[in-house]
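Chain entry —
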Amino acid sequence: MEFLGATQLASYCGPKRGCLLPDIAPTTTTKDTYQAYCLPGYRHLSTWRPGLFHKVVSVPPNDDSGQFNPSGQPPTVLLGLRSSLRARYSTHDWHHANMVQLKGSKVSRYCAGRLNVDSVRLMQDKDQLTYQMQEESRRNLVERISNIDYWRSELMYELECLLKENQVLETTKKRLECAVDELQGPLKIAVECLYHREKRKGIDLVHDDVEKNLIKETDVFKECQEILKKLAQKISQQLGINRDAQHALEQDLSDKNSAHFIDEKCFNLRNTSDSINFYYGVEKADKIVSVPATWAKFSEDNIRYSQHARANSVKLREDAEVALESTSEDMWNQFISTNLAFNKRIAEVADAKNKFQTQLARVLQEIFQTEDTIILLERSIKAKEYPLKVAQTRLEGRTKRPNIELCRDAPQFQLVTEVYTIGDTIQTLKQRLQEACDTLHMLMVNKSNLEHDIAVKANSLYIDKKCMDMRKVFPSTPRLIGYT
């Protein structure tokens, strides 16, 4: 049996609150989470509590032995004091309290029922909204993946075309470089031919058609080299631009692949996936750097830049092909023209040499004849000395005739005439001998000149033939246009 006042420990007794219904209980079912509330019309117990009981209850909860009473219940009051206690509630209060409790329970159940129905409806609405949002997100992801696939295919196609163009342009550049290298040989031969022809001597050191064509040939070769080198430099610059476009396409394609992988991974996520987790505040982080319009324009600009680079590459390749063809034709024409000039000059020098050799043979023959004539003239002069001696001896002998015998008779006239005649003959023969000697000297000088000219012609002929031997090897047309 307990005291009448022990009912203050009931769950509905507590401080008075201004609300009819209790607070909504937490989701946990722990006993400590429920809070006490008071029914309407109840008074605070402290307003009618007896002073004695109040004092008894206020004492520390120790038992008779002085030990601490952990139950917190007031000690049992002695039987003698029970009659002095007043009743706290009446029967009417008790019935009224029960009725109020039942009405409060009905109101609570009604509100709880409404709350449950509304909660079910709210959950259904939110479930449907969540499902719709997820489906909309899935559709957006599918559309985004489709857009990424489209631009990926465009980028891959453009990248493939650009790589092929770069490869063809690299081949054209190598052809130009090979053509420039191939021109080094003919250019060196042309310069060597000019140096060799500087070794010509005398009158053969002439500015002839061969020299003119060789100078023109070196100029043509150098001009062709400059044209091809400039084209190779332009192609190198264009290759740099193409590599920039290729890098942009590859970077964009790599980003598209990463985005496709991420969006596809996000598309495949389900409510039952293991990799899902809470990331609070992620919706507030704004790391966006583009919108769909600028996103598409970025890839479109990369593709247009690559297409523009490919168009310039195609034009450069066409220019290179035209330049290779034209330079090859010009070099071949000039090479043939120089060779024709060489052949013509060799024929002229050979003809002049042959004529000089023929003339030299005739001069030698005349020299031999002149030498024979000189010998004959000397013999003839020598032979005329004895008749002159005889005539002069006779005249000198007849000067010794005595007195009147020194007569200018016929023998005297004949001897005088003979001496004069023989003397004139000797003088004439000596004059002719001098003329023969002068002629022989002239012939010897002419012979020397002819021999010198023949040697000069032989030297020129040797040089030109040597140049022609050097020019037997000339790059073929395929090699001149860069093919190896």
Summary: Confidence is low (pLDDT under 50) at residues 1-68, 77-81.
